[in-house]
Amino acid sequence: MDIKAQKDEQWVSHQNLLAEEVAPDVVRRVAAYCEDAMCVENTFKKGGVGAMHSHPHTQITYVASGVFEFTIGNETRIVRAGDTLLKQDGVEHGCTCLEDGILVDFFTPMRKDFV
């Protein structure tokens, strides 16, 4: 059974997380979170796009697997498994998946629009 993680839940099992398709070839799973922080897993198929956007949250992205072309502000780079990216409050950013992969995002504060 797929369920959404609950705020302040101490133990979150990946196998039960609700997988939400948020764009073609992009699936989001909201994991552990509280008012001050949130962890989100995004699974991309090759060609999947995280559209350019900004938000009032600081976001750190860890590239768990795959290869992505990422734009942060006015700079674009290719990133791979093991790389991390910092997107500060209000900075426009987005990506295109070049090889199937997973991005793990950490937000502060939590993204209320995700729950």
Roughly what is the average pLDDT, rounded to an integer? 95
The number of domains is: 1
Summing up helix and strand content along with how strands pair, one would put the structural category as mainly beta
The CATH class is identified as Mainly Beta
Second CATH tier, the architecture: Sandwich
> Which band does the percent of strand residues land in?
over 45%
Radius of gyration: 14 Å
User: CATH-wise, what's the superfamily?
Assistant: Jelly Rolls
Low-confidence stretches: none
- Total number of β-strand segments? 8
The helix tally amounts to 0
Helix content: under 10%
Mind explaining what this structure looks like?
0% of the residues lie in helices and 58% in strands. The protein is globular, with a radius of gyration of 14 Å. Strands 1, 2, 3, 4, 5, 6, 7 and 8 form an eight-stranded antiparallel sheet that branches. The protein has one domain: Jelly Rolls (Sandwich). By secondary structure, it is mainly beta. It contains no helices and eight strands. A hairpin with a 2-residue loop joins β1 (20-23) and β2 (26-34).
